[in-house]
Amino acid sequence: MPQGSPRGSMAAFLADHLDERLAARFWAKVNKNGPIPEHKPELGPCWVWTAATDPRGYGRFGVGSHGLNRVYFAHRVSLALAGQMPPDELQGCHHCDNPPCVRPDHLFIGTLLDNMADMAAKGRNHDDVCRNGHPCTPENTHIYEWGGYELRRCRACDRARDRKPSSRKCGEPGCDNAHAAKGLCGTHYMREKRRQRAAA
């Protein structure tokens, strides 16, 4: 969830703020003469988001007043303005495979796995394997949310990381916990601080 945002449903918050003023502010940031997708020319031109984007090229749009605002993917807001509010647990996916596109009929609502399957069906899945060579299959993919993004992690890499012994062991003899500060784990660090205070 974006920093500074109140907790609660992102979809409900967006629904509460949809009005003509928001729509006018949103569509003022859109170029409706974008490129035509080469793999699906029948879709027609993309409507390209011209304002803030994330590092992957997806548009970002702030909704709400200062101090109580939330930042959304622009294509999610476009779907909501078209009467297709994506639930929190689902995402807006692109038929056109163009991240900044916000044209409603280029978008569909689905899960991350739906999106991965759509990319694979079009031969546009560039992430067949993770950085360590494990297959990026639905069974080997852990999906989680962080900072408003739905992200993927390789389960095989997670298992290998968990099996790897930590090189940051607590300095207390017989303790296998990872150290937190001054070469000690949290428990032994606090014990040492209490011992020092008592001796002072």
Polypeptide structure, described:
The protein is 28% helix and 16% strand. The protein has three domains: 10-126, Homing Intron 3 (I-Ppo) Encoded Endonuclease, Chain A; 128-164, no CATH class; 167-199, no CATH class. The protein has 200 residues and is α+β, with helices and mostly antiparallel strands. The strands form four sheets. It has a two-stranded antiparallel sheet with strand order 1-2. It has a two-stranded antiparallel ribbon with strand order 3-4. A two-stranded antiparallel sheet has the order 5-6.
List the helices and strands and how they pair.
Layout: H1 10-17, H2 20-27, E1 30-31, E2 48-49, E3 60-63, E4 70-73, H3 74-81, E5 91-94, E6 107-110, H4 112-121, E7 141-146, E8 149-154, H5 155-163, H6 186-199
Antiparallel strand pairs: 1-2, 3-4, 5-6, 7-8
